[in-house]
Amino acid sequence: MNYNKNDLNLTVKGTDKIVTNKNKSEFYNIKTGRSIKVVRNCRSFGIWSRRKFIPLSRIEFQKQIDADYSEELRNVLDQLSRLSV
Q1: d(CA 2, CA 84)
Q2: I want to staple 27 with a disulfide (CB 3.0 to 4.6 A). Which of 13, 36, 53, 74 is the partner?
Q3: Within a 10 A sphere around the Cβ of 32, how many other Cβ atoms?
Q4: Beta pairing partners, 18
Q5: What is the per-residue pLDDT across 64-78, written as a single tens digit (0 to 9) for each?
Q6: Could you tell me if 47 and 54 are in contact, meaning their C-beta atoms sit under 8 angstroms apart?
């Protein structure tokens, strides 16, 4: 799975490496570059994180990841270089 910043823009509370969407249907680990599958354990669905099962009902959103500003930053730096010349 390719990491799409537009779809997966919420981090899971308690970790800054795992991102998800609003529906909690897709999870992705930024550090390892791997997608995390939602699995069933006994009666609940959830994900495994650090050898610990986290049910989907207990997953809370920590913060929204900021948009990628690299293009805007490139434009601003380009404008600044034009002004300094």
Answers
A1: 40
A2: 36
A3: 10
A4: 29
A5: 655 555 667 777 777
A6: yes
* Integer CA distances (angstroms), 58 to 6, 29, 45, 49, 53, in order: 23, 18, 10, 13, 10
**19: buried, middle or exposed (CB in 10 Å: 19+, 13-18, 0-12)?**
buried
Q: What is the DSSP letter of 57?
A: G
The number of residues in the chain equals: 85
pLDDT digits (tens, 9 = 90+) for 22-70: 888 888 888 888 888 889 988 889 998 878 888 888 888 876 655 555 6
Residue 70's pLDDT is 64
Q: Which residue in this structure is represented by tokens 């610990």?
A: 52
> What's the DSSP call for residue 58?
G
Tell me, what amino acid is at 21? N
